[in-house]
Amino acid sequence: MTRQQLFSLAFFAVLVLLLYQIALMFRPFLFPILWAIILAHLTFPIHAKLSSWMRGREALSAALLTLAILALVVVPLLLLGVMLVKEARGAEQAVRGWIMSGGIERLPDQLARLPIGGDLLRDAIRQAETKQGNLESFFLSSARTVSEFLVNEVSDLIRNVFLLVADFLVMVVTLFFFFKDGRRWLSSAYELIPLDAGHKQKIFLRLDQTVRAVVKGLLLTAVAQGLLAGAAYWALDVPFPVVLTALTMLLAPLPFGGTALVWVPVALYLFWVGPVGKALVMLAWGAGVVTMVDNILKPVLVGQGAQIPVFLLMFSVLGGLALYGVIGVFLGPILAGLLITTLQIYREEYYCQDAPPSPPSEMGC
After folding, report:
1. Are residues 180 and 323 in the same domain?
2. pTM for this one?
3. CA distance 219 to 107
4. pLDDT for residue 228
């Protein structure tokens, strides 16, 4: 080994060690940084226009846009939080009133009226009543147990709230610097990537296309489904429509279940309390409108926009959710899109050059 080779080996060993240590330090902030990257990528054209209007003052534009995004996120969350607290209090009072009015005694007969599984639920309630003796005291003791558990877990809850706030602050600060210096950082990263210029251009183009299609498609579909379902909750006088609407939007990106995890139990509740016509309307609206919106918008906005097959899109969302949590709903399709582009580059640049002559129909060469 020559002296130059020895120095090169030592240099790359030090570089890998430093990168590993930096990765360990940044690991706790990975998900807030990823959220900031997604937000910055989607809103960067607005930052570019705002900077041009301000005669190139990118720092001022970054600060104003960050504050605007902060307001657009925080203010709706605060309003939603106030409404959720009010509805939660109403739910507690409704449960207490239901118990005091003898709702537990009427529960088996009401469950028997359900069109699916009513008899089984009624028998299960009666068996539980036989084992527990007094269901009302059982429910009240269970409530006390839950209350004591929550009191014991207050310290963990406070710690989680602080972690959530800290992650949000990390995302906001990172978002500001991405607006301010993101163009220069992206240019530097682009130059350092050891790939052919054409390959890098294809990968970055696919990345931009996939991020925009996935984020916009999933968000627009979730909001549309949540609003449509929420309109039905409100029109049919379902209790706690705000909570149910927010939950519908939250579950909408899931490929299996999705919004049906909310509107199907609502329909069963309407079957229970009557009249049956409201339940039938909820079922028809959920299956015919809310679900169809997902089947129409998501393949158009996400599948075609990101050029990802529906089958791969479905499992990339599920796998991303299982591996990375909520942000995996977006990361899964993005990684799938990048994989497709990488395989296309391999097929065009390497496989077709090294493969023996074959008919044009095979592998597209």
Report:
1. no
2. 0.64
3. 39
4. 92
